Amino acid sequence: MNTASELDLDFLAATAREAGQAILEVYETDFSVESKADESPLTEADLRSHRIITRRLHERYPHVPILSEESSQQADYEVRKDWPLYWLVDPLDGTKEFIKRNGQFTVNIALIENNRPTAGVVFAPVLDWLYLGSPAGAVKIEKGGAPVTLGPSAESNGDKLVIVGSRSHPTPELEAFVEEQRSSHKDVEFVAMGSSLKLCIVAEGKADIYPRFGPTMEWDTAAAHAVVSASGRRVIAYGSDDDLPYNKENLLNGWFIAR
Predict the structure, then answer these.
(1) What is the pLDDT of residues 2-40, one digit of tens each?
(2) E strands, 57-160, where?
(3) How far apart are CA 116 and CA 145, in angstroms?
(4) Is residue 41 within 8 Å of residue 31, measured between CB atoms?
(5) Could you give the domains of the chain?
(6) Which of 46, 74, 199, 257 is within CB 3.0–4.6 Å of 224 for a Cys-Cys bond?
(7) CA distances for 177 relative to 116, 184, 241, angstroms
């Protein structure tokens, strides 16, 4: 595989589902955890997912390097800066949602091509929502149903402006942004959502805009960014018209707007 157009999307979806099932086996036990400590159920779920994803990707595409949240400290920038193609993985995105047991956590697998996310899968195992984005387009598969194509006309909110924001990480800047929009729009709705699902519902058209004024890492956004792009929408760096960049020396994202 040299480009995203050669990627087996069924394989990618199956890998995300297998990792999600491993997370559910931990999630459905009787646990109590406040943070991601060693040997906690959260850490166990994260590592199970990581191992499945990295094993499957290595088996199928042995020449494509993998950068995962769980192995990011091993990825020397002087090596990865020259990668033309690599996987960027968050095996369990939305740790607060996992702890709160609200189901809004995801498995994220992205293919980065020339520092752009060109394909990705986002799977929410509790909700059984799976989003795929690739050069062929964007789809959502819900609860084992038929794929639904996502595009600019996939959903319309009419005159209402729907803003989606972080459920677990609100910021004063987000509150100010929402109030500013309310001063210029008659009908503004704010939706709180966890993990990369915020980007995915922008891709669906269920939200018009997702402003992020807080820290995220590249693996938090890459897979859903691919879905947003494939739906005909954009994720841009705040204060510019440039797409959010990837494979930086510092993997921390700047602020961004998805719309």
Answers:
(1) 888 899 999 999 999 999 999 999 999 987 665 566 557
(2) 66-68, 85-93, 106-113, 116-124, 129-134, 137-142, 148-150
(3) 30
(4) yes
(5) 4-149 (3.30.540.10), 161-258 (3.40.190.80)
(6) 199
(7) 28, 11, 18
